Amino acid sequence: MPSVIPSTYAGMNIIEINHLTKSYGRSRGINDLSLKVLQGDIFGFIGPNGAGKSTTIRILLNLIFPTSGSATIFGLDVVKDSKKIRSRTGYVPSDANMYDRMTVLEFLRFGAAFYDAHNNTKRINYLLDLFDLNPGRKIPELSMGNKKKVSIIQAMIHQPELLILDEPTSGLDPLIQSRFFDLLHEENRQGTTVFFSSHTLSEVQVFCKTVGIVKDGKIVNVEEIASLRKKQLKKVRILLAESGTIAQLGLAGIGPVESDAGKNLSFLYSGDINLLVEKLAGLPLHNLSIEEPSLEEIFLHYYK
Q: At a CB cut-off of 8 Å and minimum separation 6, what does 225 contact?
């Protein structure tokens, strides 16, 4: 397992992005994006396909160059110091592409050599067993799910200080996903910071400590998962005695209303809950429930 990160890193921003923009002709992959990720965090970077997640990651790894702005990892510039950064970072891309002529074990040893990960046989065997992989299989014989396993193992052999994961669970069955998350939690307890890009909100909600919501190449919100769910944002469901609307309440903070025949109404509310209850008391109510919204509902609220 990885050694604990030295105390000199405690509280520092492992990743720091400042006004980063990447243009592709007339379109922009990301636009004036700023973000900080603290050492020891498990940071969920969420958004739908095309929101700018992979573009951001590729810039951080110096696979593409930014149009403007800057970014650092470990306090090092991602363009000027990319070699130093990569030696301390593990990366799982969304698409697992590998050398077809190698076996699984040959590929893992080949990748480990780039990190000077000497005496790694025990570590490789441990990860192969955990992910239930045959080291003698040729890469072309593997399913997409097994190729993703190889990609994950390759990223973790050298016990990096930072793991950057771009849709890492795609293609993994539920059992392997569970083992993968357990492994990440253990690595994180030992000091590894995890930057986890995903559009699967349920796994982000369970796994991550902090979440950054990206929309159209911009950060919409950054918040701890627990704080995000405990904020004033509430899911409200009401059953009216007769068809009606809540527009008459004249209350700010009410999100888009879902209605079933005008009697069953539900919406997200981001204001004073006492004021809401006071206003609702004037309606012909049959039933009322106020509950914590799911992360998916919060996510859609920010997008709308």
A: 44, 204, 205, 208, 209, 210, 211, 295
Convert 179-207 to b/e letters by CB count within 10 Å (16 or more is b): ebbebbeebbeebbbbbbbbbebebbbeb
C-alpha distances in Å from residue 230, one per residue of 126, 173, 193, 211:
39, 31, 24, 14
Q: Which CATH number characterizes residue 270's domain?
A: 3.30.70
Q: What is the DSSP string of 222-269?
A: EEEHHHHHHSS-EEEEEEESSS--SGGG--TTB-PPEEETTTEEEEEE
Pairing of strands 68-73, 76-77: antiparallel
Calpha distance 238→291 (Å, rounded):
12
Beta bridge partners of 36: 16
Rounded alpha-carbon distances, angstroms, from residue 161 to 5, 62, 121, 164, 239: 7, 18, 20, 10, 52
For the chain, counts of helices (H) and of strands (E): 10, 14
**134 shares a domain with 212:** yes
What backbone torsions phi and psi does residue 228 show, to the nearest 5 degrees? -60, -40
Task: Give the model confidence (pLDDT) of 255-295 as tens digits.
Answer: 888 887 778 888 888 778 888 888 888 888 889 998 877 76
What pTM was computed for the model?
Answer: 0.78
Integer Cα distance of 290 and 159 in angstroms: 45
Compute the distance between CA of residue 198 and CA of residue 151 in angstroms, rounded to an integer: 16
The secondary structure element, H or E, covering residue 23 is strand 13-24
Q: Which residues pair with 212 in a beta bridge?
A: 45, 222
210 and 252: one domain?
A: no
